[in-house]
Design brief:
By secondary structure, the chain is of the alpha/beta class. The strands form three sheets. Strands 5-6-7-8 form a four-stranded parallel beta sheet, with helices on both faces. Strand 7, helix 7 and strand 8 form a beta-alpha-beta unit. Helix 2 packs across helix 8.
């Protein structure tokens, strides 16, 4: 995605929060190899498409990707990740303070790693709530020790039941956090857009944001 796409995809959240929130959008650091098509191309408005990191695995079979994710014998390796995490943490340091980190898909991995690295360094997590849409756990086992103890930062996790990664994400991500609120909708790997679940979910996310950020 890129910032223009994310601005569009989060419009319902922005409307639900209204003037109570100021948003800062970040592009990933890794150019997306596949060219955008359809609505994504239109929303990109001529800007490049970005990801946060590359992913490789040692399973050369043609079985579904989500099956490989769920198979502990398959090794996954992230590339170009450190620079992306550094960029996120540098932005938090220079442009913060921020009350909430919101991630979608790969962006959720970035929020996990930022919180995990800060804890490893003995530093407090400077935001009050993480919000994860269509997320999953960090699959590269080089970072496994970082998450042997669940993260203390509160987390709201939103899953789409028609997402091909639903079962894996739903099983793997909540255990990364001490305090995870789980919300679900009947759509896929996307921000919810169909009523009545769209309004129900965004209203609950806003409720959690206001609860955790009441002092600011």
């Amino acid at each position: 995605a890129n910032t223009k796409i994310m601005e569009f995809q989060t419009i319902s959240m922005q409307q639900a929060l209204g003037s109570r929130a100021e948003w800062v959008f970040l592009n990933g650091r890794r150019a997306w190899k596949e060219p955008p098509v359809g609505i994504i191309k239109a929303l990109a408005a001529g800007e490049p498409i970005w990801g946060w990191y590359g992913v490789e695995n040692d399973d050369d079979t043609d079985r579904p990707y989500f099956e490989k994710l769920s198979d502990a014998s398959v090794t996954f390796t992230y590339s170009e990740l450190d620079a992306s995490v550094d960029y996120v943490m540098d932005t938090i340091s220079k442009k913060g303070p921020f009350d909430v980190l919101l991630g979608f898909s790969q962006g959720c991995i970035m929020t996990h790693l930022a919180a995990g690295i800060l804890r490893e360094r003995g530093m407090p997590v400077p935001w009050k709530l993480s919000v994860h849409f269509c997320g999953m756990r960090v699959r590269d086992n080089r970072y496994a020790k970082m998450f042997e103890t669940p993260l203390a930062v509160p987390s709201v996790q939103v899953y789409g039941r028609q997402d091909e990664f639903y079962e894996y994400g739903r099983a793997s991500q909540p255990c990364m956090y001490e305090d995870a609120l789980i919300l679900e909708h009947d759509e896929g790997h996307k921000f919810p857009s169909k009523e009545p679940q769209k309004t129900e979910i965004y209203d609950r996310v806003v409720q959690e944001i206001l609860k955790h950020c009441a002092a600011t």
